[in-house]
UniProtKB/TrEMBL annotation:
<feature type="region of interest" description="Sigma-70 factor domain-4">
    <location>
        <begin position="435"/>
        <end position="488"/>
    </location>
</feature>
<comment type="similarity">
    <text>Belongs to the sigma-70 factor family. RpoD/SigA subfamily.</text>
</comment>
<dbReference type="Pfam" id="PF04545">
    <property type="entry name" value="Sigma70_r4"/>
</dbReference>
<dbReference type="InterPro" id="IPR028630">
    <property type="entry name" value="Sigma70_RpoD"/>
</dbReference>
<dbReference type="InterPro" id="IPR013324">
    <property type="entry name" value="RNA_pol_sigma_r3/r4-like"/>
</dbReference>
<dbReference type="InterPro" id="IPR007630">
    <property type="entry name" value="RNA_pol_sigma70_r4"/>
</dbReference>
<feature type="compositionally biased region" description="Low complexity">
    <location>
        <begin position="142"/>
        <end position="153"/>
    </location>
</feature>
<dbReference type="InterPro" id="IPR009042">
    <property type="entry name" value="RNA_pol_sigma70_r1_2"/>
</dbReference>
<keyword id="KW-0731">Sigma factor</keyword>
<feature type="short sequence motif" description="Interaction with polymerase core subunit RpoC">
    <location>
        <begin position="291"/>
        <end position="294"/>
    </location>
</feature>
<feature type="domain" description="RNA polymerase sigma-70">
    <location>
        <begin position="291"/>
        <end position="304"/>
    </location>
</feature>
<keyword id="KW-0805">Transcription regulation</keyword>
<dbReference type="InterPro" id="IPR007624">
    <property type="entry name" value="RNA_pol_sigma70_r3"/>
</dbReference>
<dbReference type="InterPro" id="IPR013325">
    <property type="entry name" value="RNA_pol_sigma_r2"/>
</dbReference>
<dbReference type="GO" id="GO:0006352">
    <property type="term" value="P:DNA-templated transcription initiation"/>
</dbReference>
<comment type="subunit">
    <text>Interacts transiently with the RNA polymerase catalytic core.</text>
</comment>
<feature type="region of interest" description="Sigma-70 factor domain-3">
    <location>
        <begin position="346"/>
        <end position="422"/>
    </location>
</feature>
């Protein structure tokens, strides 16, 4: 009988080593080999445990076929192995009792779900499949050493899977660190996806995950929002007055405030697509599409706070006007390089609308008089408004199909010095210097200071008088006499050519 049981040792070594071989071996040598040597090796490593199981199974089969069956040989082993199990069960029972007492102190059911005692497993209830193929179990199904070996073997197998190979390290491929948390890994994956995706498309995909609301759900959320706003106002009033509130009352009011905030966020997220549909109408007017959406979201927040569900209208009907107002106001303040007041922007928009209508009716561009008659203003005011409506153009704007030229390349610099004028100015200075050399040193100095011929800064009579230590009247007389000399044809003839 024992020999027939040992026959499948070569076909299914895991089942034989786990159930039959240690229980039926009568020889003392086989019992020692099954209890001591495999157990010690299984604790240290899972792979030697398999080899020990195979080596002990073969001598057990041979000795069982040669000798008679002795049932008393296994009884001491059963008693010796049950001793630690009973102690462990008693210790475990005490721990479970302490855990039951500690569980009464918990406030929520969520905290009870994670009790430490739940992870304790009774060794007597473990089956062969639970322990794994590498565990060696005795007749009563108790093998704490082999279970630990199986756990350690599974951990080693997992380490072997996660550890990168030498080929991966040599290739330089990115390898996840084993100590990184799942949250960090997920964050990196999300960053890689969002970095390559278009920002607008990613935003539209995100807001599309929230389901739309019907009229009843909008009313329910509006009621919760109203209750939250009222509770917030009451709490602020009590705080200003310095009143002491009961703990239960303060807790209830705080819960209502938080519930109102949750309802507000839900109503906002469910209507973000409405903002996108309205923002599409204002694209191409000086603001980016995402900026228009952001400004529209601010208007949506305002609409959520002021929505009155008792009127009987849907929320989208009410929120549309707040969203449009927020977008148009943002365009008036931010779309132009030179900011124009909001009321003037409205006048410019009105003028543009009337101009398009007259163009369609008349088939030509309307005149300022026709526009003034339609707007009930003067033609001069129409020209002024059109002047304000002009958009500035960047000098760096490319010109032509090739894009190799810029607008600034074709604009004349009025302050640049022309080469011909520079040469004429140099010749004039030389002629003046030659004419002044015909005068006395004092007369030439007065003329140079009076007209700023030296540094380009003209001086007054008082300043020149201080330089020469005379009165301003004396300087005036010297100037008058010198100018008379310069008007003489012998001196002025060479300078008349530069007057043109």
């Amino acid at each position: 009988m024992a020999a027939s049981k040992a026959k499948p040792a070569t076909e299914e070594p895991k089942k034989r080593s786990a159930t039959k071989a240690p229980a039926k071996a009568p020889a003392k040598s086989a019992a020692k080999a099954a209890t001591k040597s495999p157990a010690k090796r299984a604790v240290t490593k899972a792979a030697p445990a398999k080899k020990a199981a195979k080596t002990t199974a073969r001598p057990a089969a041979k000795s069982a076929a040669a000798k008679s069956t002795d049932d008393g040989a296994t009884k001491p082993k059963t008693r010796s192995t049950r001793g630690p199990a009973k102690k462990a069960a008693a210790t475990k029972g005490a721990k479970n009792a302490d855990l039951d007492l500690a569980a009464e102190d918990l406030d929520t059911d969520a905290e009870l779900d994670g009790e430490p005692g739940e992870d304790d497993i009774d060794d007597a209830d473990l089956s062969l499949d639970d322990l794994g193929a590498d565990a060696v179990v005795d007749a009563d199904g108790e093998a704490p050493a082999t279970a630990a070996a199986a756990t350690e073997g599974a951990a080693e197998d997992e380490d072997e899977i996660t550890e990168p190979s030498e080929k991966d390290k040599a290739s330089g491929d990115f390898v996840w660190d084993e100590e990184e948390s799942e949250a960090l890994r997920q964050a990196r994956k999300d960053a890689e996806l969002t970095a390559s995706a278009d920002s607008v498309r990613a935003y539209l995909k995100q807001i599309g995950k929230v389901a739309l609301l019907n009229a009843e759900e909008e009313v329910e959320l509006a009621k919760r929002i109203e209750a939250g706003l009222f509770a917030t106002q009451k709490m602020a009033e009590h705080t200003e007055k310095g009143e002491k509130l009961a703990v239960a009352y303060r807790r209830d009011m705080a819960w209502i405030c938080r519930d109102g905030d949750r309802a507000k966020n839900h109503l906002l997220e469910a209507n973000l697509r409405l903002v996108v549909s309205l923002a599409k109408r204002y694209t191409g007017r000086g603001m980016a599409f995402l900026d228009l959406i952001q400004e529209g979201n601010l208007g949506l927040i305002r609409a959520v706070e002021k929505f009155d569900y008792t009127k009987g209208y849907k929320f989208s009907t009410y929120a549309t006007w707040w969203i449009r107002q927020a977008i148009t106001r943002a365009m008036a303040d931010q779309a132009r390089t030179i900011r124009i007041p909001v009321h003037m922007v409205e006048v410019i928009n009105k003028l543009g609308r009337i101009q398009r209508e007259l163009l369609q009716d008349l088939g030509r561009e309307p005149t300022p008089e026709e526009l003034a008659r339609e707007m009930d203003i003067t033609p001069e005011k129409v020209l002024e408004i059109q002047q304000y409506a002009r958009e500035p153009i960047s000098l760096d704007q490319t010109i032509g199909d090739e894009g190799d030229s810029q607008l600034g390349d074709f604009i004349e610099d009025s302050e640049a010095v022309v080469a011909v004028d520079a040469v004429s100015f140099t010749l004039l200075q030389d002629q003046l210097q030659s004419v002044l050399e015909t005068l006395s040193e004092r007369e030439a100095g007065v003329v140079r200071l009076r007209f700023g011929l030296t540094d380009g800064q003209p001086r007054t009579l008082d300043e020149i008088g201080q330089v020469y230590g005379v009165t301003r009247e004396r300087i005036r007389q010297i100037e008058s006499k010198t100018m008379s000399k310069l008007r003489h044809p012998s001196r002025s003839q060479v300078l008349r050519d530069y007057l043109d």
